[in-house]
């Protein structure tokens, strides 16, 4: 073939990334097109230019996924995640609502003592034939109001005394402490116990005694050691020689 003929032959463009016969693969990698991480386009190409033959954009990188913890099923959530961590705040709120209890709901959805003729929150009449007994979080049953103005919502058990934190039940979280600073009050003087829909006061074996005066009584009645008495709305309790509190509640059950 003459020189003129060789000059007129078309020159075939070499495809990037394809080695010549006998060329090692390492050398071929030098001709592979570079791609950016954002859109898979060849780095160094001018805007609007045509990529060389054989060029293909790199596929989009799939989002990383993490398996759910053992025993937890996967749930739909944000891209790249197979599970959603539990909402600790929601769990804590559910725990604060207290144990579930059975009762009747009024027309506004409030859960009530089955013995109550009307709702303790909105005073709506309760018809036990509508809806029947249902279970739900137990609401607060009242408030202990001391003579100095301190108030404690009864949504669980308490231990009242001069040093209630020394009691094992308080340390274990079974009861919450109410500190009363008085020489006649024992370290663990009286327990406020919640039983179903009822609030009870129990003398904890105090030396100076626990005294109770019902809403319609004009005298103090000593509570025998380790014995309990149900607190009706308006009931007053005296610890030792003088510290007192009253149980306030909107319950209409007598």
Features:
single chain; mainly beta; Tumour Suppressor Smad4; 6-stranded antiparallel β-sheet; 4 helices; globular
Explain what the structure shows:
Strands 5-4-14-13-10-11 form a 6-stranded antiparallel β-sheet, with no helix packed on it. Strands 7-6-8-9-12 form a 5-stranded mixed β-sheet, with no helix packed on it. Among the domains are: 90-137, no CATH class; 143-248, Tumour Suppressor Smad4, CATH 2.60.200.20. The chain has 4 helices and 14 strands. The relative contact order is 0.10. The termini are far apart. With 254 residues, it is mainly β.
Strand order of the largest sheet: 5-4-14-13-10-11
Shape: globular
CATH architecture of the domain at 143-248: Sandwich
How many DSSP helices? 4
Radius of gyration (CA) equals: 39 Å
The total of beta strands comes to 14
Distance between the termini: 120 Å
Average pLDDT, to the nearest integer?
77
Oligomeric assembly:
single chain
The CATH topology name of the domain at 143-248 reads Tumour Suppressor Smad4
* Uncertain stretches: 25-44, 75-86, 90-95
What is the string of helix and strand elements? HHHEEEEEEHEEEEEEEE
Instruction: Assess the beta-strand content as a share of residues.
Output: 15-25%
Largest sheet: 6 strands, antiparallel
| CATH level-1 class of the domain at 143-248 | Mainly Beta
Specify the helix fraction band.
Answer: under 10%
Summary, kept brief:
The protein is mainly β and 254 residues long.
What are the SSEs and their pairings?
Elements: H1 3-8, H2 25-28, H3 88-96, E1 100-105, E2 111-112, E3 134-137, E4 143-146, E5 151-153, E6 158-161, H4 168-171, E7 176-179, E8 190-195, E9 198-203, E10 210-213, E11 221-223, E12 228-230, E13 236-239, E14 243-248
Parallel strand pairs: 6-7
Antiparallel strand pairs: 1-2, 1-3, 4-5, 4-14, 6-8, 8-9, 9-12, 10-11, 10-13, 13-14
